[in-house]
Amino acid sequence: MLSWFLYRIGDGLARLLPTGTADRIGMGIARLLFALRVPARAHLERNLARLLGPGRAEEVVSTARAAFENFALSLTDFLRLGRHRGRDLDRLVEVQGAEHLAAARESGRGVILLSAHLGSWELGAAWLAGTGIPIHLVARPHPSPWVERFYIRRRQACGVGLLTERPLWRSAAGVLRRRGWIALMVDRRASDRVERNHASAGVWAATLARRTGALVMPGVIVRLPGRRFAARFERPQEAEAGTADALGLLAAQVREHPSQWAAFEPLPEGLS
Q: Do 126 and 101 meet the contact criterion of CB atoms below 8 Å apart?
């Protein structure tokens, strides 16, 4: 209940305050939590130490601090989605790999978009929905059902669907066979929404793509200077080969933008 109350306060402030003011408040809170050494910091620093390599302890700490700040910005981005409708986000987003996005759209097939908690991922999903893509998220539910309902309403208001029906496999396959898109984050371990008999979200995606005839495409949205964003897409491919390539490409994006990576949990196979 407390977390929901805090989200409601944050939502009101993000709507009422100027963008810069709301962002500065969010970053200030992030710096405080970082200084208090919340458990998420330890996980993030371990992940960054593996990513950056040995002997770079000071860089790990400074990168982790910046990643906390970026997470705060991604949250205020999400809260501000209540101000945006339809294609309003186009003015904030530039597309890199537009030919790959067009190829996926023109294929006439379902698409599994593999991504990571990088940049401003909720804004990216809302932007995709605003372009007319029928996108559905595979997302771990928030521990608070009140906060989870808040997220669902905000996503739905932006045209973003959420796969909640059980079994998840059946509902995801149904979306793909209707030529819809599902977005799956591969930098967290599989939750109870991804069947336990699969080793990782990547394996689950590859199996789902093979059985439904869907394409697999990697994509992220990263933050640029001046409150702009770059949506980056790579070539859509078939099942297993596409999934393996996608994991490698996503890992490369993480290495390029470690200060925008919200890796607050132990990493799954493929990005570890």
A: no
Whole-model pTM: value is 0.90
Q: pLDDT digits over 128-164, tens only?
A: 999 999 999 998 888 888 888 888 899 999 999 998 7
Distances (CA, A) of 140 to 102, 105, 111, 158, 162: 29, 26, 20, 19, 10
The token pair at 257 is: 């933008």
C-alpha angle 250/253/259, rounded to 5°?
A: 125
Q: To the nearest 5 percent, what fractions of the chain are helix, strand and coil? A: 55, 15, 30
Residues 6+ apart with CB under 8 A from 267: 47, 50, 187, 189
What distance in Å separates the CA atoms of residue 98 and residue 85, rounded to the nearest whole number?
22
| Number of other CB atoms surrounding residue 115 within 10 Å | 24
